Amino acid sequence: MHYLNYWIVLLLDVVVSVVCSFLASITTRYLFPAGFDYQVVLRFTLLSVPVSALSFYLFRIYKNIIRHSTLRELWKLLAASLVKVTLLMAFACAWSEASGKQLFVAGAMDLLLTAVVLICMRVGMVVLYDMLVSKIAQDGSRLLIYGVGDASVALETRLRNGKHYRIVGFYNFGKAYKSYRLADLPVFYFNDEQDFVHVVSRYQIEGILFPDNESVQAEKERLIRYCEAHQVKMLITPPVDEVGKGRPAAELIREIKIEDLLGREEIKVNEQEIIANFRNRTVMVTGAAGSIGSELCRQLAGFGVGRLVLFDAAETPMHNIRLELEERFPNLDFIPIIGDVRLKQRLRMAFERYRPSEVFHAAAYKHVPLMEENPCEAVFVNAVGTRHVADLCVEYGVEKMVMISTDKAVNPTNVMGASKRLAEIYVQSLGVAIAEGRMKGRTRFVTTRFGNVLGSNGSVIPRFMEQIRHGGPVTVTHPDITRFFMTIPEACRLVMEAAMISEGNEIMVFEMGESTRIADLAKRMIRLAGYVPDVDIEIKYTGLRPGEKLYEEVLSTEENTIPTAHRKIKIAKVRKYEYASIEPAFREFVRLSLIVDIHGTVRLMKTLVPEFVSNNSRFEELDRELEQEDLR
Predict the structure, then answer these.
(1) Is the alpha carbon torsion for 586, 592, 596, 600 positive or negative?
(2) How many C-beta atoms lie closer than 10 Å to residue 180's C-beta?
(3) pLDDT given at position 245
(4) How many CB atoms lie within 10 A of CB 464?
(5) Are residues 250 and 273 in contact, defined by beta-carbon separation less than 8 angstroms?
(6) Side-chain half-sphere exposure of 273, counting CA atoms within 13 A
(7) Confidence (pLDDT) at 362
(8) Smallest Cα–Cα separation from 589: which of 422, 370, 345, 430?
């Protein structure tokens, strides 16, 4: 719906005002025949034209969007009408021979008529507009807006003029607002599932619209469950600041995803300090096209870095993140580099040319089964590649290197986790050697550990979504398997904060919240898609994969961590290694990886990381061999 041109509104207001002046003067002429003749009426009416235009122009009443008018705007109409009549009376006193009583009556009648007619005209426009919109919205989805707070009422206002949705009323838990009305719409209530079914069926409700993620979290085990059970749509609206970018709210409303239900309270970080730290700096991100690396790039771009160097071996994902950054951050100076962390000379070129002051190292292989089958590649990328990055950080005077690690490095049961633990060992031992003066350099090393991230490339949620799209079955390895989850933006914010608060050479672990049963996750995703688990879509259990744990380690406990200034970030208590003792082993890893000596590679990993005990893997034989050697 287009706005009515404000010059037309001004013209209509002036015409109405002049007509009111004419009616007031002609009525006064009949009430007081003497002294208020037709010539006075004519002058009074003609003078009303410029006076009305001037008054309405000064108060800008013609620039208000009439369909969004509120009671607060009435004072402008009244004030403009009063100024108009005051000016009109002042001029009339100068040229009219009418008595003061006659002018007072004419002015009072003019003021009353002008104010009343202008207000009635605007009310009429609003009513007419609402009638037209209601007629257009008859075919829209019938929705209830959850809650009775300011956010819910504001959402109804934003959607009132759209044709996609028809807001039937508001929906709230408990009877506190029973029989109330908000924005001229009823407030419905529910106490249990029976109440929910009654309202949905009686009023033909097609969906529940949540105003924000906080309301979703509040109802994820109650109202969301009811919607899942009865196949009622669950929608969420974007924040107001997103709507303000040129697209209407109705176009940005989306269905609730599993990530919305697994997410937790918003992570609070010291954003101003982070921005001050990175503004106008040159920052390099390895693995920049991956799930974590690309989000780090987005956040760093928003922090106003001077230059952003993107380093990754994946061509198509790098092309995609390049296009995104060009569109979202047109003023950002960024350099995409295709390169492999295994090739030190390619890395050296990037360090030599761009001289980064901070490096975020996110390049890694992460899939447990694949790395169990390809241990030499896992070590070459995750351990040796990290060594290349760390050594060049020292050589080129990088102030801080932040390495992204994983909860699978804690008491690893698979090659991937052990390779990440090796990377942790290298950077921490190198940092300690520099801090204690046994090696030259100024780089501080920070390692961050966290669990699975929601929606990352190749992770369980995209896999389940694909299986559901194809009609199942949804494959879960074990009925009791659990994992910790965190959203990608949440993880990256904590990485930034950890980089700020760390003094260097520490392993920072994140509080991951409650673990989630993967079987429950699968069932919920099936319900969100509108199906019934094990009826419409089968859940199939396939057995634990090589190296896979049933339960992940809890990263943050009082026994294994030290608290920091941020309640969700702790410092891990880990065994420390001497750099001189582990550096020869890393040289040997290079040799073993290049000749693809799988047995020798995994054996050396277990020697250097004694807590690495394989689970459900062919490498369990090596554990027995090493145990027998220790007994001799």
Answers:
(1) negative
(2) 13
(3) 47
(4) 24
(5) no
(6) 10
(7) 95
(8) 422
> What separation, in Å, do the N-terminal and C-terminal C-alpha atoms of the chain show?
86
With 90 as the cut, is the pLDDT of residue 103 above it? no
Residue 45 backbone zone (phi > 0: left; psi -120 to 50: alpha; other: beta): alpha
625, 613 contact by CB (below 8 A): no
Number of CB atoms found within 10 A of residue 559's CB: 6
Segment 410-421 shows an average pLDDT of 94
CB 403 within 8 A of CB 415: no
CB 236 within 8 A of CB 256: yes
Q: Centre a 10 Å sphere on the Cβ of residue 399 and count the other Cβ atoms it contains.
A: 14
CA-CA distance, 425 to 408, in Å (whole number)? Answer: 14
- b/e map of 53-92 (b: 16 or more CB within 10 Å)? bebbeebebbebebbebeeeeeeebeebbebbbebbbebb
Which of 334, 338, 263 is closest to 300 using CA atoms? 334
Read off the DSSP letter of residue 211. Answer: S
User: In terms of Cα–Cα distance, which of 362, 402, 407 is closest to 556?
Assistant: 407
Comparing 122-136, 250-264, 571-585, the range with the smallest average pLDDT is 122-136
pLDDT at 247 (0 to 100): 53
- Give the pTM: 0.70
Most confidently modeled of 177-181, 440-444, 515-519?
440-444
CA torsion angle 32 38 40 41 (round to 10): 90
The DSSP call for residue 570 is E
pLDDT value at residue 249: 55
Contact 166, 138 (CB under 8 A): yes
Q: How confident is the model at residue 56 (pLDDT cuts 50, 70, 90)?
A: confident
Helix axes 291-302, 488-501, angle to 10 degrees: 60
Task: Give the residues across from 146 on adjacent strands.
Answer: 171
CA distances to 329, 337, 354, 451, 615 from 308, in Å:
11, 11, 9, 26, 40
Rounded distance between C-alpha atoms, residue 55 and residue 566, angstroms: 58
Residue 258, pLDDT score = 81
Contact (CB, 8 A) for 54 and 42 = no
- Residue 509's φ and ψ, nearest 5 degrees, are -115, 150
Is residue 198 scored above 50 in pLDDT? yes
The whole-number pLDDT of residue 336 equals 97
DSSP line for 117-153: HHHHHHHHHHHHHHHHHHHHGGGSEEEEEE-SSHHHH
User: What span, in angstroms and rounded, lies between the C-alpha atoms of 106 and 91?
Assistant: 13
Do residues 317 and 290 lie in contact, with contact meaning Cβ atoms separated by under 8 Å? yes
- The confidence band for 1, taking pLDDT boundaries of 50, 70 and 90, is very low
Six-digit token string for 476: 């879960």
